[in-house]
Amino acid sequence: MTNTRLALLAADQTITDKNGFKKYWATLGCPACGNAVLIQHTPPNGGGDGIYQVVPESEHAEHAIKHLPKDVERYYIDALRVLRVGVPDAAAVQLRRTLEAAAAHRGIKENVLIRSIEKLIADGHVTQSFGPLLHHIRAVGNVGAHASDEHVDQEAAGRALRFTTQLLRNLFEVPGELEELKKEGQGSPAD
């Protein structure tokens, strides 16, 4: 995460929608990247300083995973951080560690990651067809972890991140959402 302070370019811009409702916007600019951010906010002097939406949506939103256990999340967040600042080798290592932590959270703690991946598949935590993606994350992480002429570039680390995000959604977010549905009494209908 960078420590750039956004500059206010315009405040209290008002737009009235087709139904006659006023919406208030502020425009901010980033001196580091030169991009703008729009923020829809509560009316000025309207008794609040709430934000309704931010455009563009935070880059973190696409990587937000519900129900992610803290022991897995720490490695995943570290991978996002180092990838964001342009250190793809370190991101690859953290993604590999995320994979290890996810397997360990499911009770799979083999000495070698390749065996943990095989056990995730054998125990039905992920499908057989997802196996090559897990091996890809492992292999990219190995490249990042070892001193050699081979390096992980931003594109390869980004691809490993997408695969890892999908894995975490399958392992934690989907089951967590289904559990919430059950608690709300919205489980699967009876046959």
**What Rg, in angstroms, do the CA atoms define?**
22 Å
Mean pLDDT: 88
Number of strands: 4
Q: How much β-strand is present in the residues?
A: 15-25%
Number of helices: 5
Shape: flat
User: What are the low-pLDDT stretches, counting only 5+ consecutive residues below 50?
Assistant: none
Q: Specify the helix fraction band.
A: 40-55%
N-to-C SSE string, H for helix and E for strand? EEEEHHHHH
Distance between the termini: 50 Å
Q: Mind summarizing the main beta sheet?
A: 4 strands, antiparallel
Q: What structural category characterises the helix and strand content?
A: alpha+beta
Strand order of the largest sheet: 1-2-3-4
Overview of the structural elements:
This protein has 191 residues and is an alpha+beta fold. Helix content is 46%, strand content 15%. The chain is built from five helices and four strands. Strands 1-2-3-4 form a four-stranded antiparallel beta sheet, with no helix packed on it. α3 packs antiparallel against α4 and α4 packs across α5 (154-183). The longest helix has 30 residues, at 154-183. The mean pLDDT is 88.
Question: Notable features of this structure?
Answer:
alpha+beta, about 190 residues, about 15% strand, four-stranded antiparallel β-sheet, single chain
